[in-house]
């Protein structure tokens, strides 16, 4: 039995990404929607990284974390969206075995890194609001680099473990993955292997990634809210809540969708696809909008850059 499972697994050279079960004429609408959202992701996150790198006033821990958040959002959405858009026009909707492994590995790496980075950002806001006089000392450049590097390391380690465990499964039942990208739960559905060990490992990984980061975020914001409520100035309270509410909004959307996807029993594939959209496309699109439109420093930096571009353009026209 074990030999037959191994043989069947070795015959799998590609998978079929079923995607969304809608009428074929709606694929054009879905393609245009994905294209619009992905274009906004590219524009917003590349723009955010460019603004942070070019404006010296944004050389602070908060913007260092924001720059890395934009980098992560840009890359993990790029792992998913282009292939999904291609499949809207493709008859076969296939993805190679190596392509599926790569997609799962990169997506897991970046999504886990984002979770730890959001926890680091919550800790940064906690120090900035609760201990402002010690902020520059406690949030040193060295600590910021360590927190970001640690986020990527945790992402890489988790991704290696999850990908290795997932692709030791025997895929002899079907090649059709009922999802729009390669994820471990849809892959488990088409496996004919005993899933007990794999489910234990995946649940353990989700628990050690999601629970600690949520605890750090919740505890940080409990202290932040407590401190903000003690601020006598209405303007001061408003500024503090404005800075933190955007972060909490992003965290709520991201973690709400992830908990629905990975902790609730896998009985509703179509709802799982919709939940996946929240963290593969919606959150990467919203992050730069939230952090730029609600952030005075970023808006001023954007005005400065756009002002230089307009001045340069007018100068060229004058010369011509």
Automatic annotation (TrEMBL):
The keyword Transmembrane applies. It is found in: Cell membrane. It comes from the Eukaryota. The keyword Coiled coil does not apply. The chain crosses the membrane at residues 26-51, 63-81, 101-123, 143-162, 200-224, 245-265, 271-293. PANTHER family: OLFACTORY RECEPTOR. This is Olfactory receptor. It comes from Nyctereutes procyonoides (Raccoon dog). The lineage of its organism: Eukaryota, Metazoa, Chordata, Craniata, Vertebrata.
